[in-house]
Amino acid sequence: MAAIKADGLYKVFGPNPERGLKLLQEGTPRDEVHATTGNLGAVIDASFAVQPGQFFVVMGLSGSGKSTLVRMLNRLYEPTAGTVHIDNEDVRALGKEELRKLRATRISMVFQSFALFPHRTVLENVAYGLQVQKVAKDERFERARTALQQVGLGGWEESKPSQLSGGMRQRVGLARALATNADVLLMDEPFSALDPLIRRDMQNQLIELQQELQKTVVFITHDLNEAMLLGDRVAVMKDGQIVQDAIPEEILSAPATDYVREFIQDVDRTRILTAETVMVDPKGTLASGHGPSVAAREMREQQMTDMYVVARNRRLVGAVSDRDVTEAARRGIQRVDEIVRHDYATAAPATPVAELFDLAVEHAMPIAVVGEDGRLLGVIPRVVLLRALGANANSAGTADGGVTGPDGGVTGPDAVGSADAAPTATGAGHSEEATTDA
Amino acid sequence: MPELPRVPLGRWIDSFVDLLRDNLPWLFTGIRTFFATLLDAVEWLVHWPHPLVFIVLAAVLVFWLRSWQFSLFTVLSFGLIWSMDHWDVTMDTLALILVATIVSVAIALPVGIAAARNRTVSQLVRPVLDFMQTLPVFVYLIPAVFFFGIGKVPGLIATLVFAIPPGVRLTELGIRQVDKEVVEAADAFGSTRNQTLVRVQVPLAMASIMQGVNQVIMLALSMVVVAGMIGAGGLGGEVFRGITTLNLPLGFETGLAVVILAIFLDRVTSSFRDRAAAAEA
User: Fold this and answer.
1) Would the pTM of this model clear 0.80, i.e. be above it?
2) What is the DSSP code (8-state) at residue A375?
3) Could you identify which of A28, A153, A400, B144 might form a hypothetical disulfide with A148, taking C-beta atoms 3.0 to 4.6 angstroms apart as the criterion?
4) What's the CA gap between A178 and A282, in Å, rounded?
């Protein structure tokens, strides 16, 4: 018995959805229907089934209808046509009160922009679903605390969401969804708004949690890496339609349409070990406003001879060596950003690792991975490059193993192994968040 | 060329007003009694403490809300009103403003919420609000006097007509501006419509709603002098008396008292708004 079963789901937006629906059902192309009637088929004839405990990923570019699809499962959007069954119960046949009960107890949801209640504390946010169910105060706070422990946010109960970093906020969102003990978890691009390192940290945490909890998950993403890492099964959407629904390795080895093939190639190139996928959190950075003596102490503590200097918002300013810092302190220079040098290598997050080797050889300092906005996203020390190379050669890794590896080690328990093999530095992710909060 | 027939709109309105007055006298008596009672109660309340006590309480309130500087301003300016011997009429006006604000908010809040939740309501309400805000005050002052006679109640009614629209608009706006995903989250966890409204939408719209209350008060104050013309008394009555008797000292002093009251009420309500905004952040 499928935990979730969708049959022939349509969602048409516009002045006359019924008319648009009829045309679409007759096979009129979506663009033509939109041009002639102004009705937009956001989701067209979507059918799929998700087994209990399965991690089902819906992948597509923006505008492909994936967010609309997931919202029809709990009827945040009313389907124009089609049926949804959750545990064999016809969701569309439910009355208002029964639907509320279903949402409160059996389906929960995580949102892209977190959608926390800013006027409530973290604990009250997490307890919200239970408050709706009228669970007594002591019990609901107890269960909310447990959920916060599960996502590693014990101790933050009384904070307001605005005091938390992005990654922590989404963990609150996850805890809120877990607190109701619903079996079905809908996740609408939950990690898209997060920085790469934190995103990877969250993905790993979700994998661990899922091993323990075995929820039925519908996970929306536009990121192929994420889909391959997390999904037991992946559905690819294009222009409102599901063009392929298969296990990840099949998507990679036997793309059903040219679109899927292109999608894979396109994303795959960046996916085969880019700077972003191998970078680690810099162990320490200096703030541009610091004086040389503070910098010297910091470098001694971290036992580093060179350090990157960042301005506010982590924008990369330059680098300093311990020798320069000592010299500057002697000469009475006030700020470290006056003595920075620029003889280090930088790379964009999407740079393929292959292009990084030369840079790594030429420069002593770790390569700085810098985003378009000039922010220091992470660093790549030589040792990390070598390790990434090794992981790539040995097994799937987060690399192209899914395509070439005979074991297609992207699914199942292997997925966790490969995530570990990648130099993720989970602890570093946490420390980065801590600096954001300080 | 055929002559365009004249539409006797004015006469129709006149007959309509007559019709209402002849057939529904109990309604107007009821409204009049209700508002008169409410006004009396609030007037009694604001007149009850000695001016000194009142000033100290006001100073403590603004010290808690804002700063000692504004607290000092409150003491000096209210002290000035007291020393100029306009305390009683100022309190009359304060009572009128308070009642107008309470009634306006009591009407504006539910209407604004209904308009935010339902497009049809919003589309119906909007032209009515435009009408209320742009119709020259004296035009509805006449029927107000017809229905309720001379005195405080028609002054209050005229004030309400003028002061309600921003309350409705800012309530609607505030609720519509609440992050769509946050509302979805409340729904996704099984909230009823009312739970979503009370626990999420209204708290997150509070800064905008408080801004509406602030605007209601400011507009009510601006109607004080007009209301004074039809016998609502208070500072407005004094200002009007100053104008008609060419009594410059009286006109200036009471006019200044209106300004002082306005600054005080504006700062107090905008402090509440800022606090609501801080709570949302």
Assistant:
1) no
2) B
3) A153
4) 32
Instruction: Give the residue among A350, A348, A116 at the shortest CA–CA distance from A223.
Output: A350
Residue A59 near residue A222, CB atoms below 8 Å: yes
Neighbour count for residue B10 (Cβ, 10 Å) = 8
Confidence of residue A415 (pLDDT cuts 50, 70, 90): very low
Count the neighbouring beta carbons within 10 Å of the beta carbon of residue B226. 18
Q: Residue A182: which of A325, A255, A86, A259 has the closest Cα?
A: A86
Residues of A in contact with B181 (CB under 8 A): 111-113, 115
Cβ distance A101 to B187 less than 8 Å, yes or no, reads no
Does a structural domain hold residue B9? Answer: no
Pick the closest to residue B255 from B243, B267, B270 (CA basis).
B243
Q: Which candidate, A216, A206, A196, A210, places its Cα nearest to that of A173?
A: A206
Domain definitions of chain A by residue range: 51-271, 277-437
B54 assigned to some structural domain: yes
**pLDDT tens for residues B208-242?**
999 999 999 999 988 888 888 888 888 888 888 88
Question: In chain B, how many domains are there?
Answer: 1
Is residue B17 in a domain? no
Q: What is the pLDDT of residues A73-84, one digit of tens each?
A: 999 999 999 999
ipTM computed for the complex: 0.76
Out of A102, A119, A133, whose CB is closest to B280? A119
Rounded CA-CA distance A365/A348 in Å is 16
Nearest to A76 among B182, B188, B192 (CB): B188
Nearest-Cα residue of chain B relative to residue A77: B184
Any domain includes B110: yes
Q: Do A108 and B188 touch (CB under 8 A)?
A: yes
HSE-up (13 A, CA, CB side) for residue B18 = 6
Chain A residues in contact with B200 by the CB 8 A cut-off are 117
What is the rounded distance in angstroms from the CA atom of residue A114 to the CA atom of residue A132? 19
CB contact under 8 A, A108 and B189: yes
pLDDT greater than 90 at residue B189: yes
Task: Kindly determine whether residue A103 and residue B200, on different chains, have CB atoms separated by under 8 Å.
Answer: no
- pLDDT for residue A413: 37
User: Considering just the CA atoms, what is the radius of gyration of chain B in Å?
Assistant: 22
Bridge partners, residue A268, by sequence: none
CB B181 within 8 A of CB A113: yes
Q: Does domain A51-271 have CATH number 3.40.50.300?
A: yes
Cross-chain Cβ contact A107/B191 below 8 Å: no
Q: Where in the sequence is the domain holding B253, given as residue range(s)?
A: 23-280
Looking at beta carbons, which residues of chain B come within 8 Å of A107? 188
* Lowest-confidence region among A284-293, A411-420, B254-263: A411-420
Q: Which of A41-45, A150-154, A300-304, B244-248 has the lowest mean pLDDT?
A: A300-304
The greatest distance separating any two alpha carbons of chain B, rounded to the nearest whole angstrom, comes to 75
Domain A277-437 class in CATH: alpha beta
The contacts of residue A43 (CB under 8 Å, 6+ apart) are A9, A10, A11, A65, A68, A69, A72, A79, A240
Compute CA distances A360 → A315, A346, A386, B216, whole Å: 22, 10, 10, 66
State residue A190 phi and psi, 5-degree precision: -65, -25
The pLDDT tens digits for A378-410 are 998 888 877 766 554 443 334 333 333 333 333
- Write out the DSSP string of A113-127: T----TTS-HHHHHT
For B182, the closest of A104, A115, A180 (CB atoms) is: A115
Q: What digits encode the pLDDT tens for the residues B85-128?
A: 889 999 999 999 999 999 999 999 999 999 999 899 999 999 99
In the DSSP assignment, the letter for residue A162 is G
Which CATH number is B97's domain given?
A: 1.10.3720.10
Taking CA–CA distances from B182, the nearest residue in chain A reads A115
